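Let's practice the habit of predicting before peeking. Look at the sequence and jot down your guess about where helices and strands might fall. Then scroll down.
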Amino acid sequence: METGKVTTKINNGIATVTFFHPQSNSLPGTLLQALADEITKVGINPEAKVIVLCSEGDKAFCAGASFDELISIKDMESGKKFFSGFASVINALRKAPKFVLVRVQGKAGGGGVGLAGAGDYTFATIAASVKLSELAVGIGPFVVGPAVERKVGASAFSQLTIDATEWQTAQWAKEKGLYANVFSTTAEMDTAIASLAIKLANSNPEAMMMLKKIMWDGTENWDALLIERAEMSGKLVLSDFTRKAIEKFKAKDK
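Done guessing? Here is the structure:
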């Protein structure tokens, strides 16, 4: 429970992959790897026709990187390994030969915005505001950046990246293309997700696989690119500036 968990249920062709961490569904390295492995496994499971990615609880969708783990990083290799976990999840979502629907029930910060951006079709509630807070703690959204920028464009990505302490509303995220739909309640969102998931589960798997490949055209270099970006974050997280900034953030959360 301390390191979180990832679970999968497959029903009528719909694979629901759920992650959880007691600290606002943040993502330590072990959970990142488990999530990447599960998405990859479900992607090749013939029983699954469509994937729904969600988190537990009715508050935060995902707080992003685990501050506890960030502050414990002592060398470049450990830093690269941690941020490579985000790269693994994004690349697993990208390469899964099935459409991934993402369910965002609450706030998405940092890496959580990356998960929303890496989905093929993302649903959200009005509570699902977004923030790329990385610069505020001395690093940057290097690894998740390509997935977010692909959805919202360079201008909106720059806004999120530079104004790193401000939350943008779910409606803003919809207008920029991060979210496909925004709902007033979780119940309304879940009804819409179920409706689309059922339709996709009964669609031609080969056609959907071909469509997904076309939709992600131009991202073939991401296996290498995101690891390069992980090295950038891994270096910056060792700086005194970043360590002091993270400690301040942790103090605010207490």
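How did you do? The chain has a mean pLDDT of 95.
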